[in-house]
């Protein structure tokens, strides 16, 4: 009898967990974002001559294991703009690092914080939940690249 009660409790618990997961997934899938931002991230790598314009610099040299800067670590303080022009006024700065982690083509792993310097977006992200998708918009080798950031917030206060 105890064995039957234990199995019944486990089955009910399992069903409850499955329903909770499905309900939360379904609600996010059909929910419209309460705020959406399209931002552009600009990275100008220091090459030894562009000190005035550079926004990032190598912290380590690439390894000799590949032709695509494999192992190179870059630290950055890059401007974030509302349009795709590098000279547009920045509304934020992306501060962090990335490193190239693939030997056979350009691929990078990023870690950064967005620091907004505009009162226009003050409070937009307080206690918010959302998703940010980054996509390469322009790449000029390692010298300059631009990422398009699609930010969707689903809980806004």
From TrEMBL:
Stated role: Dirigent proteins impart stereoselectivity on the phenoxy radical-coupling reaction, yielding optically active lignans from two molecules of coniferyl alcohol in the biosynthesis of lignans, flavonolignans, and alkaloids and thus plays a central role in plant secondary metabolism.
One protein family per Pfam: Dirigent
Keyword terms of this UniProt record: Apoplast, Secreted, Signal
Keyword Ion transport attached: no
Claim: Zinc is one of the keywords in the record: no
InterPro entries in the cross-refs: Dirigent (IPR004265)
Protein name: Dirigent protein
Lineage, top ranks: Eukaryota, Viridiplantae, Streptophyta, Embryophyta, Tracheophyta
Cellular localization per UniProt: Secreted, Extracellular space, Apoplast
